[in-house]
Amino acid sequence: MQTVWKGVISFGLVSIPVQLFTATEEHGVSFRQIHVSDGGQIRYRRVCTLDGEEVPYDDIARGYELPDGQVVVLTEEDFAELPLASSRAIEVLSFADADTVDPVRLSRSYYCEPTGSGAKAYVLLRDALERTGKVALVKVALRTRETPAVLHPRDGVLVMHLLLWPDEVRTPRFRFLRDEITPQPRELQAAEAYIHTLSGTLDPPDLVDRYQAALKELVEAKVAGRQLERPAPAHAGGADDLMEALRRSVEQAKHDRDTVAPARRPARKRPAKQATKSAAAPQPTPVRKAAATKRSPARKTAAKKSTEGR
User: Fold this and answer.
1) Measured between alpha carbons, how far is 49 from 64 in angstroms, rounded to an integer?
2) In this predicted model, what pLDDT tens digit does every residue of 147-187 receive, in sequence order?
3) How far apart are CA 226 and CA 213, in angstroms?
4) Is residue 18 exposed (0-12), middle (13-18) or buried (19+ Cβ within 10 Å)?
5) Do residues 134 and 153 touch, judged by C-beta distance below 8 A?
6) Which fold is adopted by the domain 3-26+47-168?
7) 18, 30, 201, 214: which one has the fewest Cβ atoms less than 10 Å from its Cβ?
8) Distance, CA of 101 to CA of 164 (rounded, Å)
């Protein structure tokens, strides 16, 4: 992993030197834009709209367009002079319960690694957050932009999740929210039954990216010169057969769970106490009866001899 930032976590009067690493990576099939007629790769040039000339990257600056159409040019020197008090510090502002973080505000994630002599203070903050079930609300400047974030422990390290600012989250304004839509009790019961049937882990073992898998299969088929079969389109049921769709969904979920569960479920071991008790127990009753049956002729013979002696 490549270091993307170096600084300190400002935890009260304690400073913890850390460096950040990107915690996630996205996998996908990348494409190039190709000229259909000859297969040539399409490239883009940075061309000025006034003189039509291609502009070197070093001669390009950023501009802010005003409402009247005028553009204010800002250079790298202008951005360097902006006051960012937390430019090299992850400043802890407060603490909150982990479940109070709105998932819609979560952005990129970074691993925090302690450097130098900051390991002890780092572990102290990590363990304190684990014991209290809290996350640290922080503020950090990355790539000339100040951003709120949260720190929380995961797999023995502190992870920093960048957050969107509250005014960057749009308010949902949809027409159906103004309508009075109330599901029927039996529909709710069927939906709840389906939810309970499929309840499990967040990332089940059979969770795959079907689009990426199909895309790779398509590329392989193109290379091999074969044609893929197109799957039949799924039937979209209307409101009238909502209950029927829910009923069939529950049945299918139960069938899938019962089919997959035995392969995942480990064999149950017999408790140690029961095994010990079984080993120390006497032989079963049928064995004792068989032994008694074998001794019976001996007793009868002894009785006959006693009678003859008389």
Assistant:
1) 17
2) 999 999 999 999 999 999 999 999 999 999 999 889 999 99
3) 17
4) buried
5) no
6) Ku70; Chain: A; Domain 2 (2.40.290)
7) 30
8) 11
